[in-house]
């Protein structure tokens, strides 16, 4: 009977300890605009995300840093290609 009591006490103690994990401080999520304004932090986050994409690629900070980097690249290129829709008159004249 004493063995069962000791076994149950050890099982309870181990179960209680199994649930104890070192609590991580929640990571502060920065916005796209913040990453656009903070190049050093953006570069550091992008490097961290690149080194562990399986775990980090879909995290808010990786997504926001990547989006900020893309927006900065496209804005430096003139926001990409601007396409002006042709009017019906321009389309008719193009086929003549």
Task: Give the topology, please.
Blueprint: H1 2-18, H2 32-37, H3 39-51, H4 53-56, H5 60-76, H6 88-94
Helix pairs in contact: 3-5
List keywords for this structure.
mainly alpha; 0% strand; elongated; 96 residues; 6 helices
Taking the alpha carbons of the first and last residues, their distance comes to 102 Å
Beta content comes to: under 5%
Which residues form runs of ≥5 with pLDDT under 50?
A: none
- Average pLDDT number: 79
The helix content is: 55-70%
Largest sheet composition: none
Order of helices and strands: HHHHHH
Explain how this protein is built.
The chain has 96 residues and is mainly alpha-helical. The chain has a domain of 52 residues. 67% of the residues lie in helices and 0% in strands. It contains six helices and no strands. The chain is elongated. It starts with a helix and ends with a helix. The mean pLDDT is 79.
């Amino acid at each position: 009977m004493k063995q069962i009591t000791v076994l149950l006490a050890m099982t309870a103690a181990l179960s209680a300890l199994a649930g104890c994990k070192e609590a991580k401080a929640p990571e502060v999520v920065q916005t796209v605009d913040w990453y656009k304004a903070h190049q050093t932090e953006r570069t550091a986050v992008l490097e961290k995300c690149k080194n562990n994409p399986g775990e980090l690629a879909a995290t808010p900070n990786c997504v926001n840093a990547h989006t900020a980097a893309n927006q900065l690249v496209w804005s430096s290129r003139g926001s990409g290609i601007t396409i002006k829709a042709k009017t019906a008159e321009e389309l008719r004249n193009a086929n003549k």
